[in-house]
Specification:
Length: 378
Amino acid sequence: MSHTRPSGAQSGYDVVIVGGGVAGLATAWRVARRGLSAAVVDPAPGGGATHASAGMLAPVSEVTYTEEPLLRLGLASLAAWPAFRAELEDETGADLDYRTEGTLEVARSADDMAYLDDLAAFERTLGLRVERLTGRECRSFEPMLAPSVRGGLLARDDAWVNPRKVVRALLTAFEKAGGTLVPERAAGIDAPETGGPSVRLESGDAVAAGRVVVAAGSWSASLLPGLPVRPVKGEILRLRGPRGFLTRCVRGLVHGSPAYLVPRGDGEITLGATSQELGYDMRVTAGGVYELLRDARELVPGITELELTETTVGFRPGTPDNLPLIGPAGPPGVFAATGHGRNGVLLAPITADIIAAFLTGDEVPPVAGFCDPGRFGQ
Ligand code: GLY
């Protein structure tokens, strides 16, 4: 890896990306591939929200059907994922654990089923493929489901990926494309009217750039005061079971909260997630773990037999309207690529395309209109 520790204010980079999560690294790789010199500033790439994330590429089941712009953005990014994944795997030889068996969203009561039927009707108006299944049909797809599951929807177009493998591959691909990792923490951004912005590092050094992209997740507001992004705490568990314990993503509403189980090829199951507005509370709580296991057991009783291998906290970067902040951020030469909320992994390819288009003067994808960081008038 070509880790560079800059000394003093350097002006060697066309673009400096602050934040090496999935959105920042996807953007960095894209701009490096377009021939721009690029650096990523992050002391621990992939160590933030991406580390906690389950990696669902599920634009419909992750938003409510009243959030149509987010849905359209998610569908645009889902459509970009197959080429993004193929290019990244070809470039690095990595296996991203990209799976396309779809999501099975299950109902345990007549009310839940009525909700899913409404959702299915909406999905069909958008041309999405969704199949209504009986409880028996659900269990024929996923035999570990509880006998109390009375029906569900199969969304065959949903996919998922292992986010930790994605960030490792992105970092490799970025460095292969000539990019530089600056493994330090950013302390601030200086953006004078002329002369180009620079990133101040906690070490006291600075990295100057033609343009700066802030992709620091929920911490982005500390670098760009006034940016409407806040941490939404999520606790998430990882379990280990036999391969094939589940073959699809399984979701359901339990006690009013959405629960999901995401299986990997090696038998790992990611089980999520709590959602709380508690600032940067890093604690995994007994109550959080209890609720996650209790709710998941209602959907898949056999999970209590599996090994609990990890408990993690992450901070989703939330915005007032649940849409991300992607584009010019106000100060000259400074862009935002943050605010992805529950959908960072899904939205990484479209985020990279939007920022790369802004930086290279290409035509910006139309969905970028939903993501203007200035839309709240701050
Ligand atoms: N995307 C799943 C979550 O935020 O919990």
